[in-house]
Queue: 3 jobs
Job 1
Amino acid sequence: MAKENPFKRIFDLYTSDLGYQEIERLIKRDASEVYEYFAHDIPKPDVTKNKFSRALIFLRSLFNAFLLKLSPARRLIYIFTIVIFIVGLVQAINSYVVLSFLIMNILLAFELADKLTVKDDLNTARTIQSRLLPQDKIDLPGYQVATYYESAKEVGGDYYDILDVKDDKHLLVVGDISGKGLAAALYMVRLQAILQFLAESASNPKEILIKLNRMFSKKLSKGYFLTLLLACIDKGGSISIIRAGHTPVLHYIAAEDKFVEHTPKGIGIGLNDGKIFENSVEEINIKPETGDILFFYTDGITELMDDYKRQFGDGYIRNIISGSKDKDVEVIKERINAAVEEFRGRMTGQDDLTYLVFKAD
């Protein structure tokens, strides 16, 4: 019997969980994210220079950007290691080459440890953030409700909630902080705290939105803004809708077998904290009839792209809702999720994705 090659056994051990999708993710997604991370520190190319010169300048700038991301001590060790490697290679001193290899791997181990520590912290933050969203099935008089939330990274900036307000009303909140990741998640937590405070003192969604803009916009860093939709639902099922630059509400009218988009006027929070914002806010009132379906969402689902950079849009959603008008909301949600998965294929992690499906009983 032929003796098993030990190198093959080691290779199989470390590549057993390696598949085509993992390699494709490394090339398509991870590589682009790494480049975006360093791109902020890379100057724009000088178009007056030839392609070769621009390429050399780009590589030098990319290398400098990488070095500056290292701590001073690790930066010094990294440069020292490269010098040892080059000397060993030129002078044919194998011990120098081996030494540089060992030092480089030790340095890599330190960087990896830092990354894994941060990843553990982010996973903890993800668990905490998920607990801030409604944990139980939402029970609203007169409506079936199904919800879906998926963050692009470990944590995200999408937010939805159902808050109790005065006069036995309920306030639906759907929000989207610009950007994604930790910064957006921190703003989301602050948004939730302010909204819960405001909901205790007011039942008018317009009043809540105006006060929220005054309190929240002052805390937003430059370049960040918030889109938000508030829907106040009374005991009879009537809904008052206002929005601050958010996506419209998609309303399927069962009796007429048609869709209507409810898009009250309003600009995003953080774009103006004064009269311009207040004067832009418009409130509309609707009374869905039995069988009507309302679709509240963030732009993560409609702007979802496939491998060919085509957007998901709302066409699939309309077809699924109209074709499932006799089904309950959980079935509609399952069909939308299936369509999303089939459409995006391997293009995951593009943006936070949130939606709610309401069906009037």
Note: The chain has a mean pLDDT of 83.
Job 2
Amino acid sequence: MFEGIIPALVTPFKENFDVDFEGIARNLDYLEKYVDAVVPAGTTGEAATLSHEEHVEVVRYVCDVASVPVIAGAGSNSTREALFLAKEAEKAGATAAMFVTPYYNKPNPEGLFRHYKAISDAISIPVIVYNVPSRTGINTTPETVERLASIERVIGIKEASGNLKQVAEIIKRTPDDFIVLSGDDFMTLPILLIGGKGVISVAANVAPHLMKEMFKAFKEGDIKKAKELHYKLMPLYDILFIDTNPIPVKKALELMGLAAGKPRLPLVELSQEKTEKLKAVLGSLELI
């Protein structure tokens, strides 16, 4: 159902830190001719500092204006809250919903299974698991993913462990129609080569055309061209994580004349020193 280049959208803010809905529409205009779906209200969208009302409004707005499928960010470390966001995403018209593994609580594998089972039982749209151990403090193992894949409506995983061996084991253990998406831009091509279907991406906010060109080359069997584009994009992948995501990508969009605004506290704006490094990379890719 989902493959290709899928940007995890930033949530642009106005000067007073209210959500800039017109900015969301402007950014979608830039992206939609290149991307295969979008993810609002995820990590890159600063979901952690959106109120529940704002979270729902952002998802609803993107569902209303986007011309591509919408995978709504709906995760929480509280199953009850995740169920609320899941139901709201479904009501908004999201094509699917994505749920980060519960952070801070550190559930064991049985708790993870029951969390996703409760969500899947409560909605009728597809569910995508999001594994990002660096932020949540837990790793969803291949054994657990194999079990999760047996749940009705759990159709795939955004895998951001950075562990290619683990990703390969997940692909090996799950059915052919289970969708494995890279959650790390730099892992996109390696994961495609071992059976992944695409990427939920930070860099695609900035260079969707180059990422789409890489994916297209891969799909057409032109691995040489895909590899060349992978290495061309590597400096962008690196610079967008020179600081905590989404600090650098918001600055990049601002430099490109797109909608961003400063991140909400406790995140702060990119430093001037790092901004100069970012400018150099964006200039080398003719993005500014």
Note: The chain has a mean pLDDT of 97.
Job 3
Amino acid sequence: MKTYIDLKNVHVLTPNLKKRLSGVTSTIVNLVPKQGKLGVKIAATGPGLPDHLPHVGFGQFWKLWQLPEDGKCRVWHARRNVEMLPGIIMRDILRMKIKVIFTSDAQRHHRKYTKWLISKMDHVISGSQKAGSYLERESTIIHHGVDLSRFTPSPDKAKERSELKLDPGQKLVGCFGRVRLQKGTDLFVEMMIRLLPSHPDWTAVITGRVTAEHIGFADKLKARVKEAELEDRIIFAGEVDDIEKWFRVLDLYIAPQRNEGFGLTPLEAAACTVPSVATDVGAFSELIVNDKTGIVVGVEDLDALCLHADKYMSDETLLKTLGKNAREYVTENFSLEKEATAINAVYEAVRNA
């Protein structure tokens, strides 16, 4: 059962108004408990959220006409259009005592409707410098962070590989995320078809959900792997619940996306001492330090992806150095605590304004 709390004891509401699991949902699930531990009285609202999160039901929303005990407006933290609009309606039409902020990760020119919604926000957070450049107003740049207690280096990769029914003697290169064209899963498959024959000690792993509309795409990739006679070395593991375990057993991560909002996977890999070869989408160029924690190449540049992956796969010492650097870099710059602390500071500033 959900953990319901009284809205009178809440200063910040983070809505999740879509049932379908997404990156936004994961952000809320990861951040809310951390923000609460750091001192903010925060709760989530809406469907599709796990029971352990502090939750406020819609039936309590009438209390938004009242100020909390400290006499300051509450914050409604939207992350989608569908969450900005009710925030505006509650504040401007129903005259509820709230302020509305929005986090934007999108790296595209917004439509007129979205621009209008954003213009009505009391404050805007951008997940990256790139995302902020598409807004026609000032924003606070706060990069997403990774849970460093969950994503950790493996103490024994061979043992953990065996537990996942993988060959403990093989090095592993992975590509994780939904299997679809946008995510560049086909580029990863083509990379591995090129590279694996000259790297007999490596195996490739693909994890991620295949939704109904992308079954044909996934089937073509599997057929391509079968045609290349690499079925035993390019493994489609499907959707997994314990993704941190799969990151820990990797030696190299590939993020070949064609399009991305932010893109957390290179940080999750880095936290597990795994360097990345990534395309220049999302915030990847702000998360990876070239030649120190990995490399960022052009979008759909298959030759460059192969060139750098081959370089890393051929040099175990370099891989370990990059992995060590990556863990240090993400610990210093991209912890979940750092993100939560920065967002909490925005809440405090907006509530005091």
Note: The domain at 3-145+336-352 is CATH 3.40.50.2000 (Rossmann fold).
